[in-house]
Amino acid sequence: MSHITEANKGLEAVEARDWDKAISLLSKALKSSENPAWLLGRSKALISLKRYEEALDDANLAFHTAFERNKRPLMMEAQYRRAVAYFRLGRFANGDCCCIYAMRLCKGLPAIEKVDIKSLHTDENGFWTQTVEDAQLEAKLEANKGNAEDSSLLGQLPSMQEQPAHIQDWRRASTMRVQCLTAMGRLPADDPARKVTVSVKPERKELASVQSERDVAITSGGAPKMTTQKTAVASNTPPGVQMYQSSTVMSFDITSKGVNKEKLKVEFRPDSVQLNPLVYPSGEEKEFVLDLYSYVAPSAAVEFDSSACTFEVRPNKVTLSLKKKTPGMWPLSKTPVSAVEKPKDGKKEYATSFSRTTPIDVTETNLSSRRLRAAEKTATEAADADAKLDASAQKIGKPQAEATDPRPSGPAYPTSSRSGPKNWDKIAADEEKDEEPGVHDFFQKIFKNGTPEQQRAMMKSYTESNGTTLSTDWDDVSKGKVKINPPDGTEVKEW
């Protein structure tokens, strides 16, 4: 087939999340033309397969080719893809800087400005000075006022209401900024990840030769042969991970058979755990890094007592036990699949657990279902102010200091507990109140301070997208039904 056909099929594979097929087809097409859209599609596929350095190279080259063709939307996408790659590589200051490059392109500024914006936000030692509060304030000003005249970051820029075509791209980059700066804020003050080493125009390299896992297997061992043996596992397939948490400890079971207890070295870091060497499903022994923010929501203040963290090597797995500095349940980045009640010293504790072999892609525009549910409840409250509020609606619609609990007491279920029956609804509500305010509070404020048109847009986008998209732009939402946009790693199913 022609390289155009291969490229189109490759982009379709990206949309279908068939990453290996996408890389194979796009790599063939790129040999004929370094099309920036094809490079960006391959970069996204490589990110999903955790091949971050290769994804960064594709995003850098995509910016150059898009710049040469004067394609602003593709330049915006290239800067955003650079940010995603740097975030995944743990270079958070670089990721935030690339987000700003993308946001300024969305505002209509030149792709390459006379003064690089990074010079305004680095200190004399090259450390990045922006904080997550700066990013949240920028997003709030944009959402509430539709302009950035008072922004300390973007300066005197045109309003996004004048650029409706790029407003979603701006919001996506803004969300990515929060992710980068939240992670950076938990690093030591002198951590290298706080230094900015990027520039608006990256160094240009030749097109990298990238192969899919299937192509590598065929090249090294010939065509696949029919066999009755177990199918070979790709070398980059990560070990399975199962997570549990109580109010004091977070535990991880990492599936790994035959780990050498004498050779294994475990390093407990502020936001990750490094194990080297670990046996992968393919049988290969190499380093494995457990990213804690793939399991815990960004709003959680993750702090462990490293001196009290332990690990245990078992025949088929390695168990990590991380002691929390401050007791409490942390919100997860994905709704747990199970919740069990564990007795301890006569008291009740809730333990949550779920399994995942790949981290959630928090770099896309989708919002978590929990935050969208919060926005939906806020919208319902504004649409029907006379309706009777339940406890969760009060939590969203009013400040906590003013909120009361009008719900009747929950049913008293039969129990053998010496302390008598428990009102589990009230206990769950009390635990919710103990959580620190997160991004969902930010969206609550957006709705509360928004115009009726913005509130209508939020209601329509959330309802029609089945809880996967939230927008305040009525001009964009009113054009038709909002499409369902599930997070990476998930798929839409008809029920």
UniProtKB/TrEMBL annotation:
SGS domain boundaries: 412-495
UniProt GO molecular function: protein-folding chaperone binding
Every CS domain range: 236-334
InterPro entries tied to this protein: CS_dom (IPR007052), HSP20-like_chaperone (IPR008978), SGS_dom (IPR007699), Sgt1-like (IPR044563), TPR-like_helical_dom_sf (IPR011990)
Biased composition regions of type Basic and acidic residues, renumbered to the chain: 341-350, 374-389
CDD domains, per the entry: p23_CS_SGT1_like
Bias-annotated ranges (Polar residues): 226-239, 462-472
Residues covered by region (Disordered): 209-239, 334-353, 374-426, 462-495
Record-stated family: Belongs to the SGT1 family.
Protein name, as recorded: SGS-domain-containing protein
Taxonomic source organism: Conoideocrella luteorostrata
Lineage, broadest ranks: Eukaryota, Fungi, Dikarya, Ascomycota, Pezizomycotina
